[in-house]
Amino acid sequence: MSTRADARRNYDLLLAEARAAFAEHGTDASLRDVARRAGVGIGTLYRHFPTREALLEALMRSNFDGLREHAESLLTADDTAAALQEWLGRLAAGSMAYRGLPESVLAALRDEQSQLHESCVAMREAGARLLHRAQAAGRIRAEVTADELLALVSGLAWASEQARHPAEMLDRLLTTAMRGLTP
Amino acid sequence: MSTRADARRNYDLLLAEARAAFAEHGTDASLRDVARRAGVGIGTLYRHFPTREALLEALMRSNFDGLREHAESLLTADDTAAALQEWLGRLAAGSMAYRGLPESVLAALRDEQSQLHESCVAMREAGARLLHRAQAAGRIRAEVTADELLALVSGLAWASEQARHPAEMLDRLLTTAMRGLTP
DNA sequence: GATAGTTGCGGAGCGGTGCTCCACTTGTCA
DNA sequence: TGACAAGTGGAGCACCGCTCCGCAACTATC
Description:
The structure is a homodimer.
Chain A: H1 5-25, H2 31-37, H3 42-48, H4 52-73, H5 80-96, H6 101-110, H7 117-136, H8 146-162, H9 166-181
Chain A binds a DNA duplex through residues 1, 3-7, 10, 30-32, 35, 40-44, 46-47, 50-52.
């Protein structure tokens, strides 16, 4: 039993609509609207996701897990710097999927109470291993920290979002940033 | 005559309260609250500033003008790269004065209809002269554009805002960025 | 199948928001 | 001092996030 069948169905419906709404209107999309689009009462939405953050969390956790796995798969790459850059590119692209999301990523990193924190930390540590490997190979300056790196990339992703040609701008900014990271 | 004395007074009161409110609650502070704190009806606020952007504009224009003047005064500095870095630091710090403002800066840069656009462009061009001078001196890579530079610094300012120690983080990120900008 | 009981649902309601509109007050100039 | 344009203020509209609880619907048992 645990969960009733209709509850499970509504949960999935809400999640799908939330994903669409956040992609369309950014992270401050109307939750009433999400419920409406899912054909469900507003109370039902709040029953399943007590806060807006809970909703974001559900969406972002898979993001984080994917990034962690990606980082781990890159740990055996020959070119450590290229591996790091590839991962940072995907991190930035993932952040940009929903407007306003980079802010949530950083907030989750900061707030240890956040339920997102765990999966976010796991992702960060996978990224840190990638960084350390590149540093050990002398490809990245030793004094660069993982926190700094994530903040940097989040900032670039954010700035690119605002530009006329986001993808192109992100590419330029990432390239410049990588130059600053090398010894 | 032109404007009545009381209207002028209310305008100034509103502007002062708006500045305080934006600094305290970010750029989405409650306008009703601004009017309340200024001891004025909400209608009066909207009479003077038809949109939230108009209010931001009035506040930011002085910011931009100050940045432009600063850039111009740095044009005669001996160390072109240091001059650029100093100005970028002030740009970032100015952006961070109000949470959420960097986004408005970039939006104004993008939107040519914006009333902010003119003063923003003037500031950007003053910054661009600073950049070109450093490039001519061989201190900054030639292919870096002014747009890219402003986006970069805005992104770093934004990311720093989110960090635990904003000022310190901004310093680290700016240093890394400058490294990426040098040939 | 029928039934009991728990689980989940929906939306009215509260206090807030941005913004509009217009009856009324107030400053100004003749 | 008065006429009148300029300026005011807040009621009102449609929305928001979020809470609460009477009621409907699903499920385990018989």
